[in-house]
Amino acid sequence: MGVDVHELLEAAVSGLNGQTRPGQVQMAEAVNDSMHDGSHLLVQAGTGTGKSLGYLVPALLHAIEDRRVVVSTATLTLQSQLVDRDVPALLDATEKLLPRRPKYAIQKGRNNYACLHRIREGAPDDEGMLVDVPPAGPIGQQVVELREWAEQQLQDGAAGDRDHAPSHQYQAWQQVAISARECLGAQKCPYGEECFAEKAKEQARRADIVITNHALLSIDAFENRSVLPEHDVVIVDEAHELPARVTGAAGDELSPQMVERVAKRSRRFVDDDHADDLIDASDALRAALDQSREGRIEATNAVVLEAAALIRDAARAVYSDLNKKSDDKDDDPDGAKRQSKGAVKEIFDVAERVAALSDLDVVWLVDRDRFGRELRIAPLTVAGLLRELVLKDRTVVLTSATLTLGGDFDAIARQVGLRPSDKLDDGDEMPAVDDDSETAPLPWRGLDVGSPFEYEKQAILYVAKHLPPPHRDGLGQKQFDEIIDLVKAAGGRTLGLFSSRRAAEAATAAVREATDLKILCQGDAHLNELSREFVEDPETSLFGTLSLWQGLDVPGSTCNLVIIDRIPFPRPDEPLMAARQRAVDEAGGNGFMSVAATHAALLLAQGTGRLIRRTTDRGIVAILDPRIVTARYGGFLRASLPPMWPTADREKVLGALKRLQTS
């Protein structure tokens, strides 16, 4: 091959006008070793390490050996960043050293691509008829623009994916895209040869490196649909989000409105009695949900389970009717029957799963303000699924800036299906594993390559020990006074991370009333607009909830202070988390530490990570919840944070913020 990982990394860094970082070199070596010996790898690479190059460089070496690598990200944004910027720049920088230029491709779920059949033939109405007329109003205008854009994409040989579409709302996109279940298939669709999604799949089949997202990775593994091409290495970036994304992909929902809509769409293809039975079953589900409490559905809630069984049986009969005739082009010229079949099959699958109420699933009832009550179902744990369907037959590298919780990798390892007992120590060689059983070991290594940041010098961790512990009624006046004094001392420049929308709004109102400083609050406008305004005006502050805890990049004087109002434990009445915690307790473990504390530690690590984004950044993280130093679990939470200089001295902190304001 003529080139090793060090030479290639050096060329990549030089070509991208960067500088070599020890952590990046260490990471690239470890990823390369893992790809060759077959051990799994968890590697924590702090912000500023350059972890993308740390895994992409060894991926290039692996790919030119004709061994395909799949890179999975948590978000479509990072996925597009890798494809549009990072990978092309890397290939340009290293092209002279490689025997050939590796091919790469992006692959997303089918609903992310415009569907030519839906655009040209129309979307189904409530009765299942394909209607070509766009809906009235602004949505209709967006649909027209999206149709014109898709046809132009086709002429230009472009991807036809949503990221490059003109501005639109979700409802408009649903008029020009379809789910995988509704798709006619390339062989039966009259536009199969032109299909954007099929072209993306074909490009992926020809690529050495395929860049996808956690949701599609989950679908490929769990639904046995072979969405992704064959591969022997998976690199999971933003791996701390993998369990949650997999849970979402492996979850489902069932509502009376969904069932009724599907019944109406299928009516023109099936026996009227069978369609009526499905509508009656939707009414039974609505009545069952109306007389049930929000929260987890247990075996004792017979009325809900019986309603789900009615839907299952009625959907089975409708699906059987739809299958009585072949759906070749003569039988189903517009594809409406095939789309109805997909929708009915989805209703059947979810209803069957709910009615079974397996010990491996959690079912719960939610009440949505605008859309009414519905059932949701998700796996009790995804660890076993990931172990059997992702980790068992290929090498997996998992990386993130936050993988060590409580000071080690064990918590994350368990969540993704790796056993702490299978961890290899430094210097251990990869053992030969001939056992193919479920209990066979899956050897893995954990590596923390650190961060280029000097947290002890760049950041202060302030815990307001003098404040009372938070209570269920939200923030009190003492917390408001503390927030006001901190923000005033910082001269704005504050990112406020709150545990609830109500707390964020109340704190915003309190600071606005007490100061002349500009405070933006999540919900005032679109989050992208708020973030941009926060970054552009250093004296502006931004308060918000969960979506601000992760992914927001605000380097420099824009953010000198991060305020966290309380430890972000999951709500005690959150059904899935509560069920997982109870399951650990019943198995003899500590459910609180394994579930609630681990969840809180991860969010705290992500939230505090918003402060220091460059080597020149300085600032303070202020946690207003004294339990992080007074409770027994506090040590576990603090060990999950960057090594900032700790203090409880309020006056020192206010003084430091004032100095930062003028520096």
TrEMBL record:
Task: Give the superkingdom in one word.
Answer: Bacteria
The regions listed as transmembrane in this protein's record are none
- Name the cofactor(s): [4Fe-4S] cluster
Q: For this UniProt record, give its keywords in alphabetical order, as a comma-separated list.
A: ATP-binding, Helicase, Hydrolase, Nucleotide-binding
Look up the EC number in the record and give it. Answer: 5.6.2.3
Give the UniProt record's GO annotations in the biological process aspect.
Answer: nucleobase-containing compound metabolic process
Cite the Helicase ATP-binding domain residue spans from the record. Answer: 10-309
For bias type Acidic residues, the affected ranges are 425-438
Q: Which family does it belong to?
A: Belongs to the helicase family. DinG subfamily.
- Specify the protein name: ATP-dependent helicase DinG
Q: Which organism is it from?
A: Kribbella caucasensis
